[in-house]
Amino acid sequence: MSGITNLHESRALSVGFRAGVSRVEITPQAPIWMSGYPHRKHASRSVVHSLWAKVLAIEDENARTVIVATDLIGLPRAITDFVSARLQEEYGLERSQILFNSTHTHNGPVVWPNLRAMFDLGKREKGEVLEYGRGLAAHLFRAIAEALKNLEPAFLSYGLGKAHFAANRREWTPEGVRIGVNPLGAVDLDVPVLEVRSQDQQLRAVVFGYACHNTTCPDDSYELNGDYAGFAQIELEKSHPEATAMFLMLCGGDQNPNPRGSFELAERHGKALAAEVDRIRGASLRKLEPPIQAAFENIDLVFAPHTRETFEKELREPDPSRRRRAAAILKSYDESSPARCTLYPIQAIRLGPDLTILALGGEVMASYSLRVKKEYPGNLVVAAYSNDVMSYIPSRRALREGGYEVVESMVYYCQPGQYSDDVEDRIFAGIRSVLQRVGLHSEESLAEATPESSLRTRLISLFRDLNVGTDLEWSADTSLLRSGLLDSLATLQLAEWIQRQVGADVDLLQFDLSEEWETIARIEQFIARHRQSQAG
Ligand SMILES: [Zn+2]
């Protein structure tokens, strides 16, 4: 090969991406208290497979970004801010350029202060957990530095598949919403795949994601492992020993694997996911091009109003987690600083025109990713459990329904109660702002409905708010009832909305639901008829 050809080649490559990959083992070296379930009684007993922090660094001519995947329940802001500040100081990375994701495995160590009211830790156990966190921060920094040091020319490509073991877990019962299986609830089965190859076409990294809790293993086990995401990574690295497999947890806040309850099932789900990742890699990938763009904002999420009395009462309750939460909140009252809101991180990393990763904090429900992808059709990956995991993030509709993710989990997260009604509005305003900063704009047809918008636009906006079939194309003849899209709560809310449009009490029992409300066109006709009869 002549020198001239080599020169041409290196110039051609210099305008593309460069990528660096690294990993560091983060399996606790000694028995440690495990996170995810409140009823564990002692520290871990054994290790099924190692836990990892894996790093993909990417750079183009002008910018860099770093994606960090960890087999952990949830990296808290205390750690991600600390590591980011050091990276900023020593490598000049902006906060927006660093994405930390956690797989949410329920078979890993406690990562303090994530879920801090869940555990009854003695002084020694607490010391071990804090020590693990300090070591973890050092490990993360070292792994990121290493990935930045081994950047070399790379080809990036992206594809999308589906896996089918996630199920909506918010089951309706006469006593309210419980954790179970809800076959009618929202699910997001997407499996995004980002492939990284070297200049000579060697596979270097595969980043893939799924929106489902890592809760397949028994909830009373004391064996450290990464659950299905851990098994999926192992499977991919077994068939591609030259590559690093990285899992990103997506919006699986209200999703559980189905079936679940054993190590065998965790391995089976992991293998199914790995097989789908390889199928997509073999079938259809789109090559990505620079530039890299990144944006990051912290917004405020507001809690419902609370008073000191609530926690004085809670302090006397039998549940020790509630007593721990109450004590912490009362202390904040004593110090005149009771939390009225919490910071919420929203980040976007765009890799050219064909892929944007939106990374949200917390345990985000699937309806969020369905709604974002609807508003921004194209190649958008919506990760959750990113940069901080401060709580579950319920949809507006789930807030009205209640249940574990909305109410009880806030005790374990040591938050002073559920969020105010506007949590989804605030997050979507933040998402639009962050995506706009990387050049993405929402579809005009789905722009916020105003009182001046057409009846059709406002109806579609209502269905979106109700999280009704958010992955559907809405048209005048979309069948609502026969397709089971409207459950009883959504039907009631639609009825209330129609009453407001008509401007008078309508006898809702008088018309046949399946006839009058069958399609969007019929609802429009119904409202028009009532308005006419009022005018006449
Ligand atoms: Zn969870």
Structural description of this entry:
The protein is an alpha/beta fold. The chain has 2 domains: 323 residues, no CATH class; 83 residues, ACP-like (Non-ribosomal Peptide Synthetase Peptidyl Carrier Protein, Chain A). 36% of the residues lie in helices and 22% in strands. The protein has 15 helices and 21 strands. The strands form 6 sheets. Strands 1, 3, 4, 5, 6, 10, 11, 13 and 15 form a 9-stranded mixed β-sheet that branches. Helix 4 crosses helix 5 and helix 6 runs antiparallel to helix 7. The N and C termini lie far apart (88 Å). The site of zinc ion has 3 residues, from loops. Zinc ion binds next to loops.
Please give a handful of descriptors for the protein shown:
536 residues, alpha/beta, Non-ribosomal Peptide Synthetase Peptidyl Carrier Protein, Chain A, 2 domains, nine-stranded mixed sheet, four-stranded mixed sheet, 15 helices, 21 strands, 22% strand, globular, disordered N terminus, binds zinc ion
Strand content: 15-25%
In this entry the ligands are: zinc ion
What's the end-to-end separation, in Å?
88 Å
State Rg. Answer: 24 Å
Overall mean pLDDT stands at 91
| Major pleated sheet | 9 strands, mixed
Summarize this entry quickly.
The protein has 536 residues and is of the alpha/beta class.
